[in-house]
Amino acid sequence: MKQISVIFVLFIVLGLDAINGYDCKIVQFIFGDSLSDVGNNRNLPRSLAQANLPFYGIDFGNGLPNGRFTNGRTVSDIIGDKIGLPRPVAFLDPSMNEDVILESGVNYASGGGGILNETGGYFIQRFSLWKQIELFQGTQDLVVAKIGKKEADKFFQQARYVVALGSNDFINNYLMPVYSDSWKYNDQTFVDYLMETLDSQLRVMIQDTPDVL
Ligand SMILES: *[C@@H]1O[C@H](CO)[C@@H](O)[C@H](O)[C@H]1NC(C)=O
């Protein structure tokens, strides 16, 4: 049996050191799946991937489900807290606006989402990585309209980017016979397809802020 030689969860943090003389806050933009979702699916009314069972959130805030698929903080919460960055607000949070983006960044992560569009289809609603990147482009437009292109470029260049997903492309796609990807590909060609897709996604993500890399 061939082994799938890929790290299931990709965790990439891209960033650039603070730019001198600019006092906009350093914030994070988070792209991911249920490991990083802080409330997007909660605001997707038809999504079947929901973190609303009683044990979710028991060690967080008031102990009630808060949209995180965990009892406490997400991995991104923990890493961001350690670095000392504000916790980005879920893209679909009702409080989301330009000021919130500039203060704390945005979290686009969505339970059930994957690198591939078809991943997690049976959850009906979830943001795939392409969708999350599309939403990020909308965020960039909003910030440019609010503070101008020059300042916005600096803001996005000094921000931190977390891209952490990939396990659903196996669990809720390739390894499930209900998805055509499970019979169209073999282990190696599927991993190649994933990596090619992620490569083009990261390029589109940073096209307006090439200095991030
Ligand atoms: C995935 O969806 C995006 C839009 O959300 C689209 O631009 C892209 O072509 C789609 N990719 C495939 C392989 O269907």
TrEMBL record:
Keywords: Hydrolase, Lipid degradation, Lipid metabolism, Secreted, Signal. The keyword Phosphoprotein does not apply. One of its GO terms (biological process) is lipid catabolic process. It comes from the Eukaryota. InterPro entries: GDSL, GDSL_esterase/lipase, SGNH_hydro_sf. Its main location: secreted. One of its GO terms (cellular component) is extracellular region. Residues 1-21 form the signal peptide. One of its GO terms (molecular function) is hydrolase activity, acting on ester bonds. It is found in: Secreted. PANTHER family: GDSL-LIKE LIPASE/ACYLHYDROLASE-RELATED (PTHR45650), OS02G0732800 PROTEIN (PTHR45650:SF16). Belongs to the 'GDSL' lipolytic enzyme family. This is SGNH hydrolase-type esterase domain-containing protein. It comes from Microthlaspi erraticum.
